[in-house]
Fold this sequence. Notes:
- The complex is a heterotrimer of chains A (about 325), B (about 750) and C (about 300).
- With about 325 residues, chain A is mostly helical.
- Chain A is built from 13 helices and no strands.
- In chain A, helix 5 (about 90-125) runs parallel beside helix 13 (about 290-320) and helix 6 packs across helix 9.
- The model of chain A has no long low-confidence stretch (mean pLDDT about 80).
- Chain B has a domain at about 1-95 and about 175-365: P-loop containing nucleotide triphosphate hydrolases (Rossmann fold, 3-Layer(aba) Sandwich).
- Helices cover about 75% and strands about 0% of the residues of chain C.
- Chain C is mainly α and about 300 residues long.
- Chain C has a single domain, classed as MetI-like fold (Orthogonal Bundle), CATH 1.10.3720.10.
- In chain C, helix 3 (about 85-120) runs parallel beside helix 7 (about 170-195) and helix 10 (about 260-265) runs antiparallel to helix 12 (about 275-305).
- Chains A and C meet through helix 1, helix 2, helix 7, helix 11 and helix 12 of A and helix 4, helix 5, helix 9, helix 10 and helix 12 of C.
- Bound molecules: iron/sulfur cluster (2 copies).
- One iron/sulfur cluster binds near residues 687, 704 and 717 of chain B.
Amino acid sequence: MIHFLRRRFLFFFFTYLVSSLTIFFLLRILPGDPARVIAGGREATDDQVAQIRDELGLNASLPQQYLTWAVDFIRGEWGDTIAFRGADNRDLIMERSVNSARLAAVALLMSVPLSLALGVIAGLFENRLPDVLISLLTLSVVSLPEFVTGLFLINIVALRWGRSELAQSLGWWFLASSAAPANASFAEMLPALWLPAFAATLVMLAYISRLTRAGVIEELKRDYVRTAALKGIAWRAVIWRHVLRNALLPTITVIAISISWLVSGLVVIEYVFGFPGLGSLLIAAIERRDLLLVQGIVMVTVTVILFANLLADVAYALLNPRVELA
Amino acid sequence: MATVTQRNLLDVDKLTISYRVEDQWIQAVRDFQLQLGRGHIIGLVGESGSGKSTVALALMRYLSRNGRVEKGSRLVFDGEDLLSKPNAEMRRLWAKRIKFVPQNAAAALNPSIKIGRQVTETLKAADGIDGHEAYERMIRMFHDVNLVDPERVAERYPHELSGGMQQRVTIAMALISNPELLILDEPTTGLDVTTEAVILDLVRRLIAERDTSVVYITHNLGVVAQLCERALVLYAGEIMEEASVLDLFQQPRHPYSLGLISSVPKPGQSKRAAPLQSIAGNPPSLTRIPSGCVFANRCPLVLDLCRERKPPLETLEDGRLVRCHRWSEMEAGMQPVSPILRPPSPSLWRASPEREKGRNALLDTTGEKERKKPLPLHGVAQAQTRRGGVWGGGNDNTLMRATDLSKHFPVERKVSEILGRLDPAPIRAVDGVDLRLRAGQTLGLVGESGSGKTTLARLIIGLEERSGGTLELLGMDVRNSVRDRSQDVLSKLQMVFQNPQNSLNPYLSVRQAIRRPLIKLRGFAPAEADAEALALLERVNLRAEYAERYPDELSGGEKQRVAIARAFASDPDLIICDEPVSALDVSVQSAVLNLLAELQDEHGSAYLFISHNLSVVGYLADAIAVMYLGQLFEVGEARELFQSPYHPYTEALVSAIPVPDPLHATERILLSDDLPSAQNLPSGCRFHTRCPRKIGEICETDKPPWRQGDAGHLIRCHIPLDELTNAQSGLVLTDETD
Amino acid sequence: MKSFTVSRAYGAFMRTARSQLRHPQSAVGTLLVVFFLILALFGPQLAPYPNPNDQSHSLRAAPTLDIGGLRLGEHPFGTDRLGRDVYSRVILGAGSIFRIAGLGTLISVVLGSALGLFMGYQGGWVDEIIGRVIDALLAIPALLLALVLIGIIRNLDFAAGSWQAALADNVILLVISLLYIPIVARVARSTTLDIKTREFVEAAEIRGESQFYIIFREILPSVIPSLVVEASLRFSYAIFLVASLGFLGFGARPPSPDWGLMVNENRGGFYQLTPWALEFPALAIAILVIAVNLMSDGIRRAVQKGS
Ligand code: SF4
Ligand code: SF4
């Protein structure tokens, strides 16, 4: 166990190092002068540019810059934003992270049970009607780009149906609104949350359910399923006790991987719905070329993904007797 | 089966089973019939593709989703028609009265459920008992199948048990409900001979105790001869012959049965006496089943009639069934060749055509023969006796010499070891092996899986880098890794691999596969190489049209022939054969063995022939080395192997062979089936944890010495050779001692 | 190799074709992809108004498409608020998405598989280090990395005609290739690891074949099936990504007839005025993505059965 954790943590830090270095150098090393861009492009005077260079510490050597940045980052000093004058990067990122996390949590709560159920049903009925229908559903409707489904949901559900009398009479949370204040509480945010969360659900649905289906089909072909059936126990018991247990184990990893998928999806969804999360902040930060902010956002994202993978690894190893934590 | 008086427990007639493969229904089993009385045991023998596993599951009325039983089939168990039973009732039968023991126990157990729960679940379904009562009964059953420490086994997961233990668990699971019918589908395939002997012994005892009827499915004629009362021979989905085991082995009435029985090498049979019988050709494809006799394309007795009309399954006076137009002509003179029982008689089966065809000038030009003359080596004799491990006996024709060869695989360090600054013990796969190969001869290497024999082969060929020791080929020092070896050494050393499925590149044609070494190692021009490749193909008895085929168009035996042609292409002095026939069916296996023997005769290459099958090694080898846990324990001329004195380990291996002869009975020496780990080797004699002849503490503390017998026979044991001889006089297998 | 390329490739093609036909949904997908490919290749010939920015039409004209009457009319998909023919713009937009996604896939598959084959066959510390770096890079979500890269490069100001400017013009192509190289390399590597232990590779080693020969002659043919599957998967992701980037404003620049961009330009308040200017490009994206997915699903099924 200790050895396992040690190896995982070594990998964790290595990944952290490589991804931070990548982002850092991408932001610094590419042709062109970021200071000039910030100062306003070609029209900026050399003096202005030089001043900004100085402010940003861009005159030091690259390794030195990285070290300075890394130490500051670890100490929690993530600098001030340029894009949003006056705000502190860390406060801004944290506030937006909480919003995105709410969105992601609702999306996961909706998508994981749903896609597992769909995947299992499709797998049990391989190549028969339910499978064909589910496969078509997951392959087509659900594999659409998020902005297409997002726009569809906004225009059809929120704008047309949301204003109908039926929706009005059903209560507040059907009144999906696309605008939410950035620092709202969870309850306040719910009406603005469920529609983008639904769009995000669709993003994960296809991926998780198709891999679940494959897992169920694979397990059904195994010899031990025949052994169990020939014990004379009911088919239902064979499925529940024997097949699902083995078929669903790998989905732990699948869900962890799909979190990285979800993060990409959220960027687009937040942009489409105008949701004040980390994704829309990232787009704004890139557009305004706020290096420190971009870097902070990416590092937070990478941290989340790495932790999700670590958790999945540990859970998988704990639940699977064949894997020893050695 | 006129002998059965009361109602049969199992009554099968006209059973035809089809499978759907890519929109096409294929009849995998046709017109199968079987009557089995209570307490009887019948063996179902067949090669791959014969449909025996399909029958096994169909007898339980369990078919995969793409299979179906055709109309008109009859499947009656104890008076009940299984084919019309609803699933719920079928489940009740499965739970209690009909049980199945699968081939691959590791796959047949649920990997994520503890053994105990999997077994008690069976009891719940069978008798509705659970909890303490079920647990008690399970523990008793585990005792019955000789599982050591049953309480702990119940707490384990399947992957934590050895293969032999897993198979015991599946047998326990099947027998715990005291079934009336037990179907065993190759339960020992994939297990070592020693483990196989233990499992067979167990099965024999348990069914005798319980009066269970058994259908035993196998490809191994030896197992049938040793275990069953009657046997049923299946070929290409049809019954060829059904008879009592004694009748079948003494006088088969069907040409296929005869061919099958004669193609298996018996213990002690050697290539020097006569080539093995073999059946030419391949079984028909199930998509194109001939309308006449299914065996017609391979049968030496074939008539025009056979191709036109399918022979009926006839019942003979002695109660056997035969499907052949010419069964009455199969006379007493056409007996299977079995050097154990009787002197070789003139047989119906041609010696394979290779022998008569005469020498092909292609490979052994006189110049090359000259070169292959043994090289004198100096100072070898003394070195051998001093080191003791090197097998002596004429040292003037040494081809290769390995001295103190070792391979230790490092093990990843655990935290405790890092803290304690200890290096973990490496896995000693090969540990100080001394070996000498004679030019132009075959050295057989035998041992259980895990003995290190394949690693040893890979060290010699250079696919694995040795951790210590030296290797000399014709007096030249041989470099460690194949990447560092000179062209000269590379061309002298070749290899034939175990798995024909993987030994040829699926994207290269046969011609391309063979001509590459000609160009690469012998410097042929492309056009020359093409011609030479065709000649080589002919040498391995494949027609020229095979040159443009791809591996997926070849049968297993044909692939192995191509692999042999490829190995011979560089004109090597030594070919390492790593289990080259173990993946092949018996009828194909013998032809490949004969081919290897002939090519050696002509070409003068030496073989290092590795196999877990002692009879096969005994047939082909001139000398034999027995390996256990990374070390050699016995080395000697091949004929010595089946004669006392044996090393106690060899003795156990030999006694475990299921001899394909129902009259042959030996006292089996049963070894425990847990091999010590190569990371934590036993002290003293490595065999002491399992040795039935262990003499006392000395075996645990002191390394046993090499003892020298006749003709350079060497045995590594604390027991002196004459004492071993006295103790082992019971085992006589060769025809030479009469 | 001669007969391999001809007869084997033909056999594989026929097998794929047959299996596509057995599953009508993949056949439909493939046909649709071919249809879009034709649009991409012959867009300027097929579009009624070959200039995508021809603003000479009436503003905000409603679609004249009449499916029941099988009639296209003057502006089948209507015109947008600037008076551009949406039908022509959709047809002309097929070119860029195919060019970028297709070329990006091709580049990443070629380079990625070379890298993966090398890593897998070589093994040892080279493989260990590159493998770990790839794993680390893959921890950053693809879209994030793409946005960061594109955001930076595009905001830079280059002299026209310089190599940097050429790079900036093809930034999406570059980014897609870079993003997918590690992913393809990982797939190629794991297949290579599997093939490497096959005995025919060992037979080649015993002959003393060079590393180059073993990788490209012995191993590569067996890796190709999984590369084909991976390529079709990458292609569908690439189309997805190109469309998303266009929508986020990180793809083609405004006047160009990029589908994602067209969707973005016509949402919000404009949607109430000219819904068709958003709906038709969105539909085009949806159909293409679904078609590519169905096709790649069919390819995967055929290849897996064939091996
Ligand atoms: S029927 Fe003819 S071909 Fe068939 S086994 Fe008998 S003799 Fe041979
Ligand atoms: S030395 Fe002892 S333990 Fe080893 S084989 Fe001989 S008798 Fe058995």
